[in-house]
Amino acid sequence: AQSVTQPDIHITVSEGASLELRCNYSYGATPYLFWYVQSPGQGLQLLLKYFSGDTLVQGIKGFEAEFKRSQSSFNLRKPSVHWSDAAEYFCAVGALQGGNEKLTFGTGTRLTIIP
Amino acid sequence: KAGVTQTPRYLIKTRGQQVTLSCSPISGHRSVSWYQQTPGQGLQFLFEYFSETQRNKGNFPGRFSGRQFSNSRSEMNVSTLELGDSALYLCASSAGQSSYNSPLHFGNGTRLTVT
């Protein structure tokens, strides 16, 4: 069965520090990859996506992610976080499984920013 | 363009009752997906509709049902409510035919509390 793993449940970083959120998946072929962000009391917002092509993709709010096929990873990065980046981040993977189209979300990583 | 609208925002129901949640997708989007979000289980897929047809269904009991209308608006219904149904229910629409390879646009959710 396909799976998406976000190994870090909670991360705390200082404002201005760099950030990397991890996402690993298990699928046979190259899946469709997404990162979403959820602020408290709100729905999810798409940060970026990878379908094909350049493995480093740029998203909104200064985020980027890199697809590494050999590591089955799609980690999210930001060079310098802002207090407004405090939120929960979800990695999602879309793939065909047994002929069925399936989108699977990771369990999320909660990001706390300290001044 | 207006975003995904979910109504109501908050609901309080008693065990055994039934509830109907509504979702209006972004104009032009014909695909609508529903998710249940809880602190313990994360985001769980309920169902997906495209042009009034259910394309995919998650592993939820038959008490959970949904439908999509010709104007792409969608409703989900939960009958015989249980305490464990307390959750944030999120609706998302997409421009593509399937959510697995098309970015999702989420509403702010309906917070259901079952007492």
Brief overview, please?
Chain A has 115 residues and is mainly β.
Task: Characterise this structure.
The complex is a heterodimer of chains A (115) and B (115). Chain A has 115 residues and is mainly β. Chain A has no helices and 12 strands. In chain A, the strands form 3 sheets. In chain A, strands 2, 5, 6, 10, 11 and 12 form a 6-stranded mixed sheet that branches. In chain A, strands 3-9-8-7 form a 4-stranded antiparallel sheet, with no helix packed on it. Chain A has a two-stranded antiparallel sheet with strand order 1-4. In chain A, β7 and β8 form a beta hairpin. Chain B has 115 residues and is mainly beta. In chain B, the strands form 2 sheets. In chain B, strands 2, 4, 5, 6, 9, 10 and 11 form a 7-stranded mixed sheet that branches. In chain B, strands 1-3-8-7 form a 4-stranded antiparallel sheet, with no helix packed on it. The radius of gyration of chain B is 13 Å and the shape is globular. Chain B starts with a strand and ends with a strand. The mean pLDDT of chain B is 95. The interface between A and B is medium-sized, with 24 and 21 residues.
> What is the helix/strand order of chain A?
EEEEEEEEEEEE
- Report the span from N to C terminus of chain A: 41 Å
Number of strands of chain B: 11
Largest beta-sheet characterization of chain A = 6 strands, mixed
Quaternary organisation of the protein chains: heterodimer
The overall pLDDT of chain A, averaged over residues, is 93
Task: Compute the number of strand runs of chain A.
Answer: 12
Distance between the termini of chain B: 37 Å
Radius of gyration of chain B: 13 Å
> What integer is the average pLDDT of chain B?
95
- Show unreliable segments of chain A: none
Shape of chain A: globular
Annotation field: number of helices of chain B: 0
Low-confidence segments of chain B: none
User: Which word captures the global form of chain B?
Assistant: globular
Strand content of chain A: over 45%
DSSP helix fraction of chain A: under 10%
